[in-house]
C-alpha cells in the first residue's frame, strides 16, 4: 500500500542531519559479486529500450526468455510456463462448519468475511505439510492481507458507513492460513482443514520481550499492557528456522484519528490531527481514536510471530525487534546458531534494522523457541561513504539513549525506535522494503523510491541513497563482517533501477537486463535466483520516469552475473508482492495485490468501467487480490 498515502510517509523530520551527505558517484554501482571494499564497478548508462535484452545473455540460473512490458489485464509469464489463480479475496479458507461462498456483489457479511480470505494479499510462505511426508505437492500457505479497499469490500462502497462495515473491514485484514494440495497439476484449497485459520485486526494477541507490560502499551481495555488486539497493515513477512511465520505491521498510523496537537512522539510516528486518511474505523470502534486511547498506536508497528501449525496458538508481538512501519522480517542463522532478523522500515527517510538473538536456536520447533525472539540486541544501520557501515545498537543506557534523553528503559527505546535511531545517527534511507540474502551471504534491500530526496528542506542525496528525486528506486546490498551477527559491514549498490536511466554494470562494465522501477518484494529461491517484484504507484504508473514500464512486474536476477530478466507482468493497477515455492522449486506462489486500484486507493463501486476485472473478468464482479500459482510446463524449476 502507501501510494497516494505516500505524502504521509515522511514523518522523519528530525533535525539530525544525515552524516552521509556526500554523494560519491564512484561508489554507486557494483555488480558481479566479489567482496571488494572499494570501487569495483562504474556507472554505465543503459542504451536500452523498454523491453530490454536480458534474454540474450546466458546465465546458468536463468533459462527463460524475458517477457515484454505489458498493459494487458492479465498475468503474463514466459513461454513454457503456466499460471493459475488460487485463494482470491473472499474464498472460504476452510474453517470447520462454514459454508458461505464469496458473493460477487460483495454482499458477504462481516461474519462471513471472518471465515474468508482477506483482501490485498501480500507476504506469503509455503510451509511443509504437518502430516504428509511428501513436501512439494501439499502444504500450508500462510499469507498477509495488507489492507482493505472499502469501495470494493462493501456492496455500496462507502456510501453508507456503520459498525458492521468496520467489522467487515477489520476481518478483511490480517493473516490467512490455508491448506493446499496439488491435484493432478492444479492446486486447490483443502476444505475444511484443521489448520485453516484467519487472524484479523481483532484477534487476541500477546506482547513478548522488553516492551511487554510497558506503561506506553497500557490502555483502558488492557491495564497491564500485555494483551493487544489484532494486527493490521501486514505487509512483508518472514519465516523462522523453527517453522513460525513473522507478519509485519506497516502503515498502522493511517488507521488512527489524532489529537489537535500531537505530541512530539506522535508526530515522529506520523500521527496527524483529525481523521485518518482512508479509514473510518474510529467512528465505530473507539480503539482507533488516539485522542481517547493515546497508547493504542504504540501497540502496532511490531513484528508478530505466528505458529501456523498450531491453530490455537496466540500470536505474539515481539517487542525486542523494535517498533517500526515494518515492511518485512528476514531471518538468517549465524554460524553460532543465533537468529539474525533483517528488517526494513518503509517510509521516506527511515531505517534498516537487524536483530540478533541472545540465545541459540534450539531443535524442537516453535515450542522449543517460544521466547527466542524476546531476548537479543536490536541494531540500526549506518552506511558510510567509504563503502563500509556499522550496526548501531539500540541499547538503553548506551550512548545517547539515556533517561535524560527521554528513554526510561529498554522498552521505551524499542517503542520509540525511530527517535532512538535518530539520536544514533543512523542513515535515513529511500523507503526500505523487503530484504533477502543470496548464496554468497550478501544481504539485499529494496529501496522503492523517494521523490522527496533532495527536495527543498529535505535531505540531500548521500552515498547509499545517491539520487535526488528518486522516483525509480534502487537495491542496496551489504555483507556483514565475519558473519550475519557482525557489527560492521561492507556495502554497494546492486542496481539503480529505472528505464532510460537504468544504471547497472557487471564486473566488466557491461550493462544488461530489463528495466524496471520501484523494487519492493524480494526473495531468493533455493537455486539462488533473486526475484524482484515492483510496486510502481498507480498514480505515477505510465508517467514520467515510469512511462515505458507498463504494469508492475516480477523479474529474476542472477546475483553473480547481474543479469536481470522480466519474468512476469501483472494485471492493470496491481502490484506484485510476496513469493514462495515448494521445496522442489517447481511450484511458485506469488501474490497479485490490488488489481484495478484507483489512484485514490478507494474504489467507487458504481464506477461504470473498471481498469481491471482480474481474475474473474466478470462484468458484475470486482477485481480481487489473489495468489498466482506458477508452474513450468516441463515440470522444471521455476526460472530455469
Ligand atoms: Fe506495504 Fe512497503 O509496502
Ligand atoms: Ca501494497
Ligand atoms: Ca511492499
Ligand atoms: Ca511498496
What brief labels describe this structure?
Neuraminidase; binds MU-OXO-diiron; 29 strands; 640 residues; 9-stranded antiparallel sheet; binds calcium ion; 7 helices; single chain; disordered N terminus; 5-stranded antiparallel sheet
What would your notes on this structure say?
The chain has 640 residues and is mainly beta. It has one domain: TolB, C-terminal domain (Neuraminidase), CATH 2.120.10. Helices cover 6% and strands 26% of the residues. It has seven helices and 29 strands. The strands form six sheets. It has a nine-stranded antiparallel sheet, with no helix packed on it. Strands 2, 3, 4, 5 and 6 form a five-stranded antiparallel sheet that branches. A five-stranded mixed sheet has the order 7-11-10-9-8, with no helix packed on it. A hairpin with a 2-residue loop joins strand 4 (174-183) and strand 5. The radius of gyration is 23 Å and the shape is globular. The structure holds MU-OXO-diiron (FEO) and calcium ion (CA) (3 copies). Residues 433, 448, 520, 535 line the site of one calcium ion (CA).
Amino acid at each position: 500500500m502507501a501510494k497516494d498515502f505516500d505524502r504521509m510517509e515522511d514523518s522523519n523530520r528530525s533535525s539530525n542531519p544525515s552524516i552521509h551527505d556526500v554523494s560519491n558517484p564512484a561508489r554507486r554501482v557494483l555488480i558481479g559479486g566479489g567482496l571488494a571494499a572499494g570501487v569495483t564497478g562504474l556507472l554505465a548508462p543503459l542504451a536500452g529500450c523498454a523491453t530490454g535484452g536480458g534474454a540474450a545473455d546466458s546465465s546458468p540460473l536463468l533459462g527463460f526468455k524475458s517477457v515484454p512490458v505489458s498493459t494487458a489485464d492479465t498475468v503474463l509469464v514466459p513461454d513454457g510456463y503456466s499460471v493459475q489463480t488460487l485463494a482470491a479475496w473472499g474464498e472460504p479458507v476452510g474453517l470447520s462448519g462454514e459454508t458461505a461462498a464469496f458473493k460477487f456483489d460483495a454482499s458477504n457479511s462481516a461474519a462471513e468475511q471472518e471465515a474468508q480470505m482477506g483482501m490485498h494479499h501480500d507476504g506469503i510462505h509455503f510451509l511443509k505439510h504437518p502430516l504428509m511426508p511428501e513436501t512439494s505437492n501439499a502444504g500450508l500457505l500462510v499469507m498477509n492481507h495488507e489492507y482493505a479497499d472499502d469501495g470494493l469490500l462493501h456492496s455500496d462502497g462507502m456510501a453508507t458507513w456503520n459498525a458492521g462495515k468496520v467489522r467487515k473491514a477489520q476481518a478483511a485484514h490480517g493473516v490467512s492460513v490455508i491448506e493446499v494440495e496439488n491435484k493432478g497439476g492444479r492446486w486447490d484449497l483443502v476444505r475444511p482443514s484443521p489448520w485453516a485459520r484467519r487472524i484479523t485486526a481483532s484477534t487476541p494477541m500477546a506482547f513478548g520481550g522488553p516492551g511487554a507490560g510497558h506503561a506506553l502499551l497500557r490502555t483502558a481495555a488492557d491495564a497491564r499492557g500485555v494483551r493487544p488486539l489484532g494486527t493490521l497493515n501486514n505487509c512483508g513477512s518472514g519465516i523462522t528456522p523453527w517453522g513460525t511465520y513473522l507478519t509485519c505491521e506497516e502503515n498502522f498510523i493511517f488507521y488512527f484519528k489524532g489529537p489537535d496537537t500531537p505530541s512530539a512522539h506522535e508526530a515522529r510516528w506520523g500521527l496527524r490531527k483529525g481523521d485518518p486518511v482512508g479509514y473510518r474505523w474510529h467512528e465505530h470502534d473507539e480503539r482507533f481514536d488516539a485522542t481517547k486511547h493515546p497508547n493504542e498506536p504504540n501497540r502496532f508497528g511490531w513484528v508478530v510471530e505466528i505458529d501456523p501449525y498450531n491453530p490455537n496458538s496466540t500470536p505474539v508481538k515481539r517487542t525486542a525487534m523494535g517498533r517500526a512501519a515494518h515492511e518485512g522480517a528476514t531471518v538468517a542463522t549465524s554460524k553460532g546458531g543465533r537468529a539474525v532478523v533483517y528488517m526494513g522500515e518503509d517510509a521516506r527517510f527511515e531505517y534498516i534494522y537487524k536483530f540478533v538473538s541472545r540465545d541459540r536456536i534450539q531443535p524442537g520447533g516453535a515450542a522449543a523457541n517460544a521466547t527466542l525472539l524476546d531476548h537479543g540486541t536490536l541494531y540500526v544501520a549506518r552506511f558510510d561513504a567509504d563503502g563500509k557501515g556499522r550496526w548501531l545498537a539500540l541499547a538503553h543506557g548506551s550512548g545517547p539513549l539515556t533517561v535524560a534523553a527521554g528513554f526510561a528503559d529498554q522498552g521505551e527505546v524499542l517503542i520509540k525506535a525511530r527517535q532512538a535511531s535518530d539520536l544514533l545517527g543512523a542513515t535515513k534511507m529511500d523507503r526500505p522494503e523487503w530484504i533477502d540474502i543470496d548464496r554468497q551471504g550478501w544481504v539485499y534491500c529494496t529501496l522503492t523510491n523517494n521523490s522527496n530526496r533532495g527536495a527543498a528542506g529535505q535531505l540531500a542525496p548521500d552515498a547509499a541513497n545517491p539520487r535526488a528525486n528518486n522516483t525509480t528506486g534502487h537495491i542496496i546490498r551489504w555483507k556483514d563482517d565475519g558473519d550475519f551477527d557482525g557489527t560492521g559491514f561492507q556495502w554497494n549498490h546492486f542496481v539503480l533501477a529505472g528505464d532510460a536511466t537504468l544504471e547497472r554494470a557487471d564486473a566488466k562494465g557491461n550493462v544488461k537486463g530489463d528495466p524496471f522501477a520501484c523494487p519492493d518484494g524480494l526473495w531468493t529461491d533455493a537455486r539462488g535466483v533473486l526475484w524482484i517484484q515492483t510496486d510502481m504507484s498507480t498514480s505515477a504508473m505510465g508517467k514520467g520516469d515510469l512511462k515505458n514500464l507498463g504494469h508492475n512486474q516480477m523479474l529474476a536476477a542472477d546475483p553473480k552475473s547481474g543479469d536481470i530478466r522480466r519474468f512476469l507482468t501483472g494485471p492493470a493497477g496491481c502490484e506484485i508482492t510476496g513469493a514462495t515455492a515448494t521445496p522442489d522449486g517447481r511450484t511458485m506462489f506469488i501474490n497479485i495485490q490490488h488489481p484495478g486500484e484507483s489512484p485514490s486507493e478507494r474504489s467507487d463501486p458504481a464506477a461504470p468501467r473498471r481498469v481491471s476485472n482480474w481474475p474473474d473478468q466478470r462484468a458484475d464482479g470486482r477485481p480481487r487480490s489473489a495468489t498466482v500459482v506458477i508452474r513450468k510446463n516441463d515440470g522444471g524449476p521455476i526460472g530455469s
